[in-house]
Amino acid sequence: MQRLKKEGVIERFTVKLDNKAVDENFIVFLFVVTESDLPKSFFSNSCVKEVFGITGEYDLLLKLKFKDIDEFNGFIIGLRKNKNIKKTLTMVSTVNVKEEV
Questions:
Q1: CATH number of this structure's domain 17-92, picked from the four choices 3.90.1150.10, 3.20.20.10, 3.40.50.300, 3.30.70.920
Q2: Which residues contact residue 65 at a Cβ distance below 8 angstroms, ignoring those fewer than 6 apart?
Q3: What's the pLDDT tens digit per position in 25-48?
Q4: What percent of the chain has pLDDT over 70?
Q5: Please, are residues 28 and 50 in contact by the beta-carbon 8 Å criterion?
Q6: In the chain, where do the E strands start and end?
Q7: 42, 49, 62, 73: which one has the fewest Cβ atoms less than 10 Å from its Cβ?
Q8: Can you give the pTM of this predicted structure?
């Protein structure tokens, strides 16, 4: 393990939490089209778990986790105020089939 870490094969060690136990069981995937780069503060929001730059109609794919629909709704209302975001497409997860960290 130490050799793999030293060689850069292992980037970091992490813990996989139970989504229900940590009140993050409302999982959303959000496709985003941006007008310009989003500020770094956008990505530091605790609900933003993963962000991918993607090809095609959208620029970014975000994996978001929330306690419930109310917390998600608050996030979306705030997101609408961001002038750098041109368009979004939201997909709510109904079941977690496989998740690895």
A1: 3.30.70.920
A2: 19, 24, 25, 26, 27, 28, 47, 49
A3: 999 999 999 999 999 999 999 999
A4: 100
A5: no
A6: 26-34, 48-53, 60-66, 85-92
A7: 73
A8: 0.85
